[in-house]
Amino acid sequence: MLRTSVILVASFGLLAGCASSSANAPQSNSPDAGKVDYDVGTPSSGGGSSTPADGDGDGGSEPAIKGRDSTTTRGASVGPKVVKRIAASKPPKAEEPETPAPAKPKPGRAVSPNGLLAEAFTIPADTEKLPDFAGLTVKKAFIANGLDAGATAPIAGLPKTVTAPIALRFTGSVNVVTAGEYKLCAKTDDGSQLYIEDTLIVDNDGVKTEATEVCELVSLDPGEYKLELRTFHTSAPIVVGLAWAEGKDGTPAAIPLKNLYKPEGADARAKAGK
């Protein structure tokens, strides 16, 4: 009987010892098991010590979470250029056949709504970039019947009294009837900037040794879009071209007069000359 009791006591002691050892043994699963570190940057080479990711550092503390390295390597290509999407301020006008605007409408004859209001401002001959138009006084106002002027073809509607050095501002709207990507181009000598709905689309600023054309892609839905073209010219000839093409591979052509509309009150201002 005594022997049996001794054996039982020994067995209980052995079981208790195993339980204690199991409780004190380190767990094989780290607290970070199942976590994914998406940081692919190079670890910092600073003098501070780092904590191993497996949690075996002194004191059993959890590994520090690394911040994303700003020097993470990126691909050399940034992908295709983002195409600006512009919202129209008005629905599109019904497309009508293009008819040449008369140079001087006869009395009683309906005035064409097509064209752009042009304002001329005197500038110094040494101007190197577009001026702040808000600080200038209009020298002359007139209606531009399209913008396709070259070295030998002046702006349609340009008064003979408007000569370089001069800054010009053309305002109105462009009517788009077909949705799609459009290449909008400004060709000037000297600088120019094209705004659609008060958003800068084409930046062709600066003095030029010859007429230069700059084009940008925009995504347009059918609608009537507010348009503003700013230009400056330090010497003759006064070259101003406003062109477009459908798609990035299209060949730009002058925006037809039928797609350009004068702003409200333009004819009265042109008649007054300011």
Summarize the structure in words.
The protein has 274 residues and is mainly beta. The chain is 11% helix and 30% strand. The chain has two helices and 13 strands, in the order αβββββββββββββα. The strands form two sheets. Strands 2, 3, 5, 7, 8, 10 and 13 form a seven-stranded antiparallel β-sheet that branches. A hairpin with a 2-residue loop joins strand 7 (192-196) and strand 8 (199-204). It is globular, with a radius of gyration of 37 Å. Mean pLDDT is 77; it is low at 1-80.
Keywords:
single chain, 274 residues, mainly beta, six-stranded mixed beta sheet, 2 helices
Low-confidence stretches: 1-80
How many strands appear in the DSSP assignment? 13
Q: What is the count of DSSP helices, taking H or I runs of 4+ residues? A: 2
In whole angstroms, how far apart are the ends? 127 Å
Name the helicity range.
10-25%
Radius of gyration, in Å, reads 37 Å
Order of helix and strand elements from N to C terminus: HEEEEEEEEEEEEEH
